[in-house]
Amino acid sequence: MEAWLGYRDRREQLQDQLGLEGRAAAFRINAFIDTIREQLGWMVQLSWTASSADRHKVDAALLLRRVPAIMSLTLADGDGQERLHVSRVELNRFDGGFDLAADPGVVGARTSRIWYGPVTYHRGSEPFMTIAVAGNRTSAGYALAEINLKLIQEVVSGIKVGETGQAFVLDSPGRLIAHPDINLVLRGADDPAARPLVALREVIHASGGIATGKDASGQSVMASMSTIPAVGWTVIVMLPTAEAFGPISRALVRTGALLVVGALFAAVLAYWLARRMTGPIQRLEYGTEQIGAGNFEHRIAITSVDELGRLAARFNAMAGELAISQERQERIRRLKRFLSPQIAELVDRTGDDNILDGQRVTVSVIFCDLRGFTAFSAASSPDAVMDVLGSYFEALGRVVTAHRATLISFTGDGLMAILNAPVRVTDPALAAARLAIDMQAAVQSLLVSWRGKGHQIGFGVGAAMGAATVGRIGYEQRYDYTAIGPVVNLAARLCASAADGQILVDVSLADSLGGRVTIASLGSRPLKGLKDDVPVFSVSDGVPREPR
């Protein structure tokens, strides 16, 4: 704990020290740039006239003498035409006539009055930057100065932190502007040695304060940074980690040695205690593996009256409860494949699934499917087809569940459901009519949006009532609940004959409704697969509703 507190205090001290040095360096560099900017501001006080040309020449010569960092100075009039160019390394030009209106410096100064150009490397080595200043009046023109940034070297070389601490300056893209090792700066923008310094800046930025990283030589350092907002530069001050935390590291080593000794003693004591409990723990472990593998019949044989015995007793009780829970969940899962959730829960609560056995029952059978779906699916993308089917079956599923019908199967774009099996209903004919009408209402609301997308789809329903054999069919790993008989085939044929929006029923279902639903006779029709014509009736809305 003492070592940790010492480390924390030392880190806070370093953050304050490095931050102070970084801010001081950033202030000095910012003052250096501001001085040049202010000097350039005096160069754009006079308007360009025939009488002021000599004055501009004298002022330019004095500026280069006062500010050694300025390597060249270019003055342009308000139209962006070069009027004067003086340089330390090139021939001077007077009224050169070069059009600088599109020069980035002139454009930037015209927009924001002061423009700081990106850092470039003269002949790939020494860093340079252009500063452009516009006059308060358009007639005063523009001053563009090329600045040698190597002189900032003096600022960073004067920063000392500890014995071996250093500072360096990066521009916004990560190019090295100043470093105590001048060779790193003179190597230019593409020097690989500068990449660790850029990475160090990113680490400090992410931490929001002091951070640990690598310097150009790969040495671990603690570093902090300050920014120069006007030009987007970063001053980073760093101190080798070994120097920063040397005393703390030695204290941590001593603390670590004590911890290792303590851990060894604890391990010996734990081994001695484990020797006395190996057998019961192994039996508990084996029992856990059996339960994890699904063998809920396994029991742990520990008869002691200590904590392990009580744990084994609770474990055995848990295994029994898990076995019961698994059996119940498996039963519900199987039932929900072909029964509504309410019926599945009912069968599970009563514990009696004899209602699913085969029997002869009078049922109402309902078929429904989409009209024009084959043409739609052939002309549409798979995503569009699956989107339509998803919303379609979701709407029908809600209606079937609400009416407590038994969902038998999905077939492509069709659905089959029955009423009165396996759970009896008071009036299967009226229940079938209610279900059919609600199915039409649910799907017709979907058709409005589908047709708005250009999908030419309709929906028809067919229903019939009669005796059928119902029950489970299948094999050990898979059972389905279904209905078999002529009434099933008749309902399917009526569905196939129904137009969009129609509900067609057979004579048995129509007679059982007894006028409680608006029914219209459509006469007799030939239906595929049936020898004789079949009387067909159409059901309209108007079914009395029961509150749900």
TrEMBL record:
<protein>
    <recommendedName>
        <fullName>HAMP domain-containing protein</fullName>
    </recommendedName>
</protein>
<feature type="domain" description="Guanylate cyclase">
    <location>
        <begin position="364"/>
        <end position="495"/>
    </location>
</feature>
<dbReference type="InterPro" id="IPR050697">
    <property type="entry name" value="Adenylyl/Guanylyl_Cyclase_3/4"/>
</dbReference>
<keyword id="KW-1133">Transmembrane helix</keyword>
<feature type="transmembrane region" description="Helical">
    <location>
        <begin position="221"/>
        <end position="239"/>
    </location>
</feature>
<dbReference type="InterPro" id="IPR001054">
    <property type="entry name" value="A/G_cyclase"/>
</dbReference>
<keyword id="KW-0812">Transmembrane</keyword>
<dbReference type="Pfam" id="PF02743">
    <property type="entry name" value="dCache_1"/>
</dbReference>
<keyword id="KW-0472">Membrane</keyword>
<dbReference type="Pfam" id="PF00672">
    <property type="entry name" value="HAMP"/>
</dbReference>
<dbReference type="InterPro" id="IPR033479">
    <property type="entry name" value="dCache_1"/>
</dbReference>
<feature type="transmembrane region" description="Helical">
    <location>
        <begin position="251"/>
        <end position="274"/>
    </location>
</feature>
<dbReference type="Pfam" id="PF00211">
    <property type="entry name" value="Guanylate_cyc"/>
</dbReference>
<keyword id="KW-1003">Cell membrane</keyword>
<feature type="domain" description="HAMP">
    <location>
        <begin position="275"/>
        <end position="327"/>
    </location>
</feature>
<dbReference type="InterPro" id="IPR029787">
    <property type="entry name" value="Nucleotide_cyclase"/>
</dbReference>
<dbReference type="InterPro" id="IPR003660">
    <property type="entry name" value="HAMP_dom"/>
</dbReference>
